[in-house]
Write a structure and sequence with these properties.
globular, alpha+beta, 6-stranded antiparallel beta sheet, Pepdidase_M14_N, carboxypeptidase activity, carboxypeptidase, Cytosolic carboxypeptidase 6 isoform X3, 8-stranded mixed beta sheet
Length: about 600
């Protein structure tokens, strides 16, 4: 269909057998796209993309191989006829590459990729990237996104069909119709409800149906990975999958446009028609795939036993990051509010969801797409959405870093879609919400993932023996509290001022009081007696058990006895007192301190 087929690019004036280093381009395979290659320098090539069949408007998808290279050969590839200027290459998207010895797709480094307007190519946008071939015998393949071909889909469907138990089939595969080039349009039906329930639309006991469409555009290979992840999850033994299979019917069309996918087109089918813009005018002869899907939807919608709840069309976006949903707007406010529920729930299940890209509209330009047709031509109970996922990546939590999508990331998005269906039906009370005791507990990490430094021997933890608690040597020589500070409590205001004994620190009180106790008794003045009173009731002084009863009149009240002793005769007692006496503190209620009350208090203090 116009792709290059084993074309060897030789320098001007060179003929004969190709030498090593004269690159051979090939795109004559399924999903391949490369129309022409020109050598414009010693190591620079201009590459021209092949437009869609019968439609020269769309040129964005590329997928080609390169071989017959020389080791450590460096080249520059220029894609010169990209039709879509607004795309993810402006936001850091880079082409994918893999080789025969390294079959895993990898993104090229950003520093080797350039997207710019070229004056040498009529001021069109050009994608240039630099690459170095490190192995001569390898075949290198470059693509816009991981390809998902028609043959891969058929192989996958055959594998899961042969893998399931014949006695209890989880799904049935049928051919909905044939494409223009006689390729199968497969229909996967998961129906475990029909034989269990007797339904009647009048009694509102009908069976709910969920329809999934995928790959209307040929370049939307990430949507196929998302659909495969969704299908694998539904067919698994997961508890959520079991509940969904037992209560709902799923109709899945994994590839709506098989001809466009096989030919390597960007959007269109064989005759150049955009499959997501012709739903209102689709005919049996020009668009047999859309025509068959419309008949299936009408048949289910007119049935007395079934009700279509969802029609979700899976797509891949080339201009925005993350995954997001396009919806519709309705004049009925209640229907519009009901229509907003599912995107909100999906946003909670998908960490890569981009709510800023979500759109709900009734644009006339999109009247031919699947979601607009289903919301206008089917019943009011139908919720039709377009689920988009980026070809590039999604933003992380910081909102600046972009993490590139991999195949596993697309699979995960499909699994999140299945989980959202269960959450939605529990939200609208179709399915019962499990009790907390029925919720499956979180699995613990297996022992193989534990740290190796942890010993396997378990030791019994013995209780700590009870020991005598000794107090820290803190001096309470002065318990007077000063509230004269004008600062806040954080700056030291309203905090007690504790004086330290002269010639000693806070940690030398014990030695100081030992010296006081061992000193001779000398008649002292009233101030010395007051100081001695505080010294005698210091914490370490009491713990040592050495204090004088003769020179302290307050001691009689403290001990609860009045005993007279002569100054000459001094008797020392060992009294087991554990705590110091509670000092007398004057408390001020700060809540009652107003400007007037402060003046009154200051006046009373002056009096």
């Amino acid at each position: 269909m116009g792709n290059v087929s084993r074309v060897i690019i030789r320098p001007p004036g060179v003929s004969g057998k190709a030498k090593r280093g004269q690159i051979c381009f090939d795109a004559a395979f399924e999903t391949g796209n490369l129309g022409k290659a020109n050598l414009i320098g010693d190591f620079e090539y201009d590459l021209f993309l092949r437009p869609d069949t019968c439609n020269p408007r769309y040129r964005f998808w590329f997928n080609f191989t390169v071989d017959n290279v020389k080791q450590d050969q460096k080249v520059i590839f220029n894609l010169v006829n990209i039709s879509k200027s607004r795309n993810l290459f402006n936001s850091g998207l880079t082409p994918l590459v893999k080789s025969s010895s390294r079959p895993k797709w990898q993104r090229l480094p950003k520093k080797h990729v350039f997207y710019y307007r070229s004056p040498h190519h009529q001021n069109h946008y050009v994608l240039s990237f630099v690459f170095c071939f490190d192995k001569e015998d390898d075949v290198y393949q470059f693509a816009l996104a991981p390809p998902y071909s028609y043959s891969r889909l058929q192989s996958y469907l055959n594998v899961i069909e042969n893998r399931q138990n014949q006695a209890e089939k989880k799904f049935t595969k049928s051919v909905l119709t044939k494409s223009l080039q006689n390729r199968n349009v497969d229909l996967i039906t998961i129906d475990h409800v029909t034989g269990k329930l007797k339904t009647n639309r009048i009694d509102r006991s009908f069976i709910r149906v969920i329809v999934i469409l995928c790959r209307s555009h040929a370049n939307a290979s990430p949507a196929s990975f998302m659909c495969q992840g969704f299908l694998e999850f539904l067919l698994s033994s997961h508890n959520i999958a079991k509940i969904l299979r037992e209560n709902f019917v799923f109709k899945i069309v994994p590839m709506v446009n098989p001809d466009g996918v096989f030919l390597g087109n960007n959007r269109c089918n064989l005759i150049g028609q955009d499959m997501n813009r012709v739903w209102q005018v689709a005919t049996e002869f020009s668009h047999p795939e859309i025509y068959a899907i419309k008949n299936m939807l009408r048949e289910i919608d007119n049935s007395d036993s079934y009700q279509i709840d969802f029609v979700v069309d899976l797509h891949a976006h080339t201009s925005l990051h993350g995954c997001f949903i396009y919806g519709n707007t309705y004049e009925d406010v209640y229907r519009y509010e009901r229509h907003l529920v599912f995107p909100r729930l999906f946003a909670g299940n998908a960490p890569d969801y981009a709510a800023n890209n979500m759109i709900f509209n009734a644009d006339e330009k999109k009247s031919g797409c699947a979601r607009r047709f289903c919301c206008e031509r089917l019943s009011d109970t139908v919720n039709a959405y377009t689920l988009e996922i980026s070809m590039g990546g999604h933003y992380l939590k910081d909102g600046k870093t972009v993490a590139a999508y991999t195949e596993e990331g697309y699979y995960r998005c499909g699994r999140n879609l299945a989980r959202t269906f269960l959450q939605y039906y529990r939200f609208i009370n179709v399915l019962p919400v499990p009790l907390p005791t029925e919720v499956r507990q979180k699995k613990r990490r297996p022992r193989t993932h534990q740290s190796r430094s942890r010993s396997k021997t378990r030791y019994e933890v013995k209780p700590r023996p009870k020991t005598t608690r000794c107090y820290a040597p803190i001096s309470y020589t002065n318990l007077s509290i000063c509230y004269d500070s004008g600062g806040s409590s954080d700056e030291g205001g309203f905090s007690p001022t504790r004086a330290v004994a002269p010639g000693s620190s806070h940690f030398s009180g014990y030695r100081h009081y030992r010296r006081v106790a061992s000193s001779t008794t000398i008649p002292s003045t009233s101030s010395q007696q007051h100081q001695q009173t505080h010294d005698q009731f210091a914490l370490l002084r009491i713990k040592s058990g050495r204090f004088d009863l003769a020179h302290d009149p307050l001691l009689h009240d403290y001990c609860g006895k009045t005993k007279s002793q002569s100054p000459e005769k001094q008797t020392r007692f060992e009294v087991p007192v554990n705590v110091p006496p509670k000092p007398y503190l004057s408390i001020i209620d700060l809540n009652q301190l107003t400007r007037g009350s402060l003046k009154m208090k200051s006046a009373s203090f002056e009096d």
